[in-house]
Structure formats: structure tokens, C-alpha cells
Design goal:
By secondary structure, the protein is mainly alpha-helical. It has helices spanning about 5-15, 15-50.
Length: about 50
Amino acid sequence: MDIEDDPFLNRFFGSVEQRAKWIYRFRVAYILWIFFVVIGIMVLTLFYLLK
């Protein structure tokens, strides 16, 4: 099944420009997620080291 055939996904990924926008948004969200995971691990490490 192609994205063009799906009525729901076609709304978001119908054209090349829309796909590029969503890929950019996913990439930014992934980088932010990695950033917060690293910060969280550092906070937990500092918490246990200073305890």
C-alpha cells in the first residue's frame, strides 16, 4: 500500500514538500530527544555521585 493510496497519510505526506517538512520535524524531535536523554542520564549520575 502506497502513501498516495491512504486517505489519512496522504493528508500529511501527499507531496514532496510535505514529506520534507515532516522529515525535518522528525529529525529535530529526534535530536531533542537524544539531548534530553543525555541530560537525564547526567542528572541521575550526578544525583547518585553526590548522594
